[in-house]
Design brief:
Radius of gyration: 22 Å
Number of domains: 2
Distance between the termini: 21 Å
CATH class of the largest domain: Alpha Beta
Number of strands: 21
CATH topology of the largest domain: Rossmann fold
Largest sheet: 6 strands, mixed
CATH superfamily of the largest domain: P-loop containing nucleotide triphosphate hydrolases
Bound molecules: adenosine-5'-triphosphate
Length: about 350
């Protein structure tokens, strides 16, 4: 898949000047409220007409001077924050409504696979009013998938759900990604969702793209981490479940080396992601002794980035880049400079299931 987006649109309160490419997989769009995320995906879907620009999907021009393909001819599935199901139709009919717009409607096996993947089999005869918010969102995702889209847009699909429902539905989205579903443009305020799902990250602020690139690289990059803000920066590593030990620990093989976590109820060989937030990584000049931390890794400083609050230190650890957030006082005491050897002490490592 290739999506190229470049457009301008002036509103009374904001001028949008958006330019990004989405190469395939899941591309997350992240940024503060009102920065133009929804407007950007609406321009791709054909729900917002730019003042000027060009939008191209898989070589087909969706928008350009003299071209403005209507939404129903763009072959884009859209999942909104609220499910927007037809209240008078049962789940099966809502799902099949999606297929009406497919130029090559899904065969019964594909329909059955989508129903199975989203756990909709038990719900087919129910009306939307009798479904939970999470169930309604699963139906909305199924309906969008059955329209055989070239691209799926999800705009804050979990935002209206409570934490329990969010946790329930996220595995369906990771499964969709793992099953090689259509490429997805995923708008979200929640970096935890993005860390579980996305391959690429687009950061926006005040109507513009401020960073675009692979997600893992952005999270471990001091400049992008500051744009993301808060305490969301830190490495995201692919990992494989490698060993369960007799003393209830699990070893994971990662590009940063082997890491030990409390026993994870996952099969050997399973692929997961690990999120190591910058403020969970301490640094030491020498190999620390007598520490309870399970994971202490030899590292080399790549760059030191001072900001208004913390100092962000990017580290090379094995084949991976990690980020550590420390105080200016600690950075000075450790005399950190590019190339300096040190030890990274990982206080917490979060395991994210991705399949
Ligand atoms: N139809 C419109 N008419 C006028 N202004 C609009 C319109 N649509 C969007 N805007 C302006 O564009 C800004 C960006 O809106 P948009 O919904 O794209 O932001 P967002 O990043 O998705 O925000 P949120 O995270 O709160 O959903 C809005 O604050 C508003 O000022």
């Amino acid at each position: 898949m290739s999506l190229q987006v470049a457009f301008r649109r002036r509103f009374a309160g904001l001028s949008l000047d958006v330019d990004f490419d989405a190469p395939g997989g899941v591309t997350a769009i992240y940024g503060p409220s009102g920065c133009g995320k929804t407007s950007s995906v609406n321009a791709v879907a054909g729900l917002l007409t730019p003042d000027a620009g060009r939008i191209e999907l898989n070589g087909q021009t969706l928008f350009d001077a003299g071209v403005n393909l209507p939404p129903n001819r763009r072959r884009i599935g859209y999942v909104f924050q609220d499910a927007r199901l037809f209240p008078h139709m049962n789940v099966a009919k809502n799902l099949d409504y999606g297929a009406r717009f497919a130029p090559d409607p899904p065969d019964p096996a594909t329909r059955a696979r989508v129903i199975d993947m989203l756990g909709l089999g038990e719900l087919l005869t129910r009306r939307p009013a009798g479904l939970s918010g999470g169930e309604r969102q699963r139906v909305a995702i199924g309906r969008a998938l059955l329209s055989s889209p070239q691209l799926l847009i999800m705009d804050e699909p979990l935002a209206s759900l409570d934490p329990a429902r969010k946790a329930e539905i996220l595995p369906y989205l990771t499964r969709l990604r793992a099953a090689g579903g259509p490429p997805i443009l995923y708008v979200s305020h929640a970096m935890s969702e993005i860390a579980a799902l996305a391959d690429h990250l687009i950061l926006m602020a005040e109507g513009r793209v401020t960073h675009a690139g692979p997600l893992a690289g952005a999270l471990a990059d001091p400049v992008a981490a500051r744009l993301i803000g808060g305490s969301e920066g830190g490495a995201l590593l692919p990992a494989t479940i490698a060993e369960h030990s007799a003393d209830d620990l699990t070893r994971l093989d990662t590009p940063a080396g082997a890491l030990w976590l409390p026993r994870a109820p996952l099969a050997l060989g399973e692929q997961v992601r690990l999120r190591i937030l910058a403020h969970e990584v301490m640094l030491s000049g020498d190999h620390p002794q007598g520490l309870s931390a399970l994971n202490v890794l030899p590292a080399q400083v790549v760059q030191v980035s001072s900001g208004a609050d913390k100092v962000l230190v990017q580290l090379q650890v094995g084949q991976a880049r990690l980020l550590s957030a420390i105080t200016a006082r600690s950075a000075q005491a450790l005399a950190l400079a590019p190339g300096a050897p040190c030890f990274a002490i990982l206080k917490t490592v979060a395991l994210i299931q991705t399949g």
